[in-house]
Amino acid sequence: MSGPQGADDRATEAATRERARRRARVAEVFGDVLPESTTDDRDPDVRRDDAAADAWLRAQVPPHHGGP
Fold first, then answer.
1. DSSP state of 45
2. CA-based Rg of the chain, rounded to a whole angstrom?
3. CB 68 within 8 A of CB 58
4. Which helix (H) or strand (E) holds 19?
5. What is the chain's percent helix, strand, coil content, to nearest 5?
6. Which letter, b or e, does each residue of 50-59 get, where b requires 16 or more Cβ atoms within 10 Å of its Cβ?
7. Are 61 and 67 in contact (CB under 8 A)?
């Protein structure tokens, strides 16, 4: 292709490649920002074990912050 249409196609392709490159860079820097499942995907009748979650969180406190 030559002429204005060919130039437009090349510009569109270049813009598409640039957007893909930027998305890949954001994903590389920030990782997966969306959870694998959301609350509407989960069974609402399943109860969480809050005591176990609290125990895990307390175990993660570094020693210089008064950990266990």
1. T
2. 24
3. yes
4. helix 4-30
5. 65, 0, 35
6. eeeeeeeeee
7. yes
Of residues 49, 45, 67, 46, the one with CA closest to residue 58: 67
pLDDT at 42: 73
pLDDT at 32: 67
Instruction: List the structure tokens of 15.
Output: 């813009």
One digit per residue, the tens of pLDDT, for the chain of length 68 reads 456 678 889 999 999 999 999 988 888 888 766 667 777 777 777 667 788 888 888 888 888 887 55
CB 23, CB 32: distance < 8 Å: no
